[in-house]
Design brief:
single chain, about 300 residues, alpha/beta, Rossmann fold, about 40% helix, SDR_fam, oxidoreductase, Oxidoreductase, NAD(P)-bd_dom_sf
Amino acid sequence: MRRKGWRASDIPDQSGRTAVVTGANSGIGFVTARELARRGARVVLACRDETRGRAAEELMRSQVPGAEVELALLDLADLASVRAFAADLKDERIDVLVNNAGVMALPQRQTVDGFEMQFGTNHLGHFALTGLLLPRLRAAGAGARVVTVSSGMHVLGTVDPRDVQMEHRYRRWLAYGRSKSANLLFVHELARRLAAAGSPLVAVAAHPGYAATNLQAAGPRMEQRAARERLVELLNRFLAQSAEAGALPSLYAATAPDVRPDDFFGPRLQLWRGAPVRSVRAGWTRDDRASAGLWRLSERLTGVTYDWE
């Protein structure tokens, strides 16, 4: 019987490696963490909510007996939490960081530090986390990866340096698209800077296509729009692929041997579903000037400067 592309069973042995997965309590983050653990990795489940994180940890252990997983609390919408998380991790190398957690199309909100919620959580939180963990990632040497989960919806628009917080006219889907373009600009600039530093650490991006998770329903639930929430649930049920399938591009980016710096992986079929392949992306996400400008802005906003020594 002919195979239909790369599967989780193709993940190389991860024994002796340590992975950190943000948003690992549900959806593609849970599947990503579980499958890395299944292949022998020690996995840190970086979750915002302790109750949900503990439940995910227990479920993961029941699905993968002997899994080496541990919960650590991380709220990407609070830079103090990001710093505390990085400081509390054991002083050891990290082989894989999967910047997976995110929010989607929320009503206008701000992070603890006063940033627009989607830009602050999806981009700035992960920018700060990656910078704080960079020495341990670089210490892992060849084979280490930083995987940042973007979205096919990045095509909705790129970051506007004149209004990164969308204070003048907030549109939730445009804000989401811009935050996902920021993810890709971040990967592009990180890959450039790693190459200049002579580091073998690989920065790469992925997107899940249309995967059924609780991400889509968060906005309607916050606004108590039951009809819209029900519609999202129906679309997820009949049109979306599973979280297991949606996690494959992230897992491929984290483990496959042919991954190159600044790659972008997504589902094979129309950015929607199927086995992971290199994905198309908007040209602006490879703009050196834009990525460098976003980097400088992110350093200023987060107060995190990357250590290249």
